[in-house]
Structures are given as structure tokens and as C-alpha cells.
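Blinded run. Sample ID left blank on purpose so nobody reads anything into the name before looking at the predicted structure. Input follows.
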Amino acid sequence: MLPKHLRLTKKSAFSATYRVKHSVYKGGIALFAGIGKKEPEIDTRVGFVVSKKTHKRAVKRNRLKRLMRESYRLMLKSGEVGNSQKYLSIIFVGHEKAIGKSFSEISSIIKKLLGEI
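Blinded prediction complete.
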């Protein structure tokens, strides 16, 4: 699990990130990037969202969130996060197309998304 200081927790932080409207979509996952950093030593905060409209079963939604979260955590650990460290906050949003995918597929999609922002 990501450390607490790297997670987006407040509704206002999610709203501010969505308001910037800088997004990329690939393979059932959307990435929303917030405003750029002015000070590089500040950590980028990350949020993971799968709405109830995506799938009615909480088990399926939570599995997709866990896969996305673990994939990002491993990339952060190995230093393969691409351009994501330029932003104050980023949000990964899972859609229906991503529900049945394996960890390796989710991981490759997230890697591509991080390379495009």
C-alpha cells in the first residue's frame, strides 16, 4: 500500500485535480493530472477511483483499484514513474474495459499512461 503522505484523501483535492482537465485514456484506465509543481521536493499525491457505474459488485471494483495501486507502487519503488512527478496530484480512474484484465496488463497500461502525460 502507498504511504499516507502519497495518497489523495480529500474531496477538494480530487475536485481540484479534475478541474485542470489534463487527461489521458488508454485500455480502460484514464489518468487525470493536476497542476504542475513549482517545488520539485514536494511529493506527488495519487488517487485511485472506480465508480459504481463501472461495475455493481464492490469486489470487482476493489480488485481493479488494488491492481492499479500495486502497479503504481512497484513503479514508484523502481523509479519508472515517468513524467508523473511533475504534477502535484494524479488520479487513475478505472472503467469497464479494465475490469477483467490481469496484473501485467494493468501494469503495462499504467506505464504507457505515465509516459504520455
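Unblinding after everyone has recorded impressions. Residues 33 and 57 are 27 Å apart (CA to CA).
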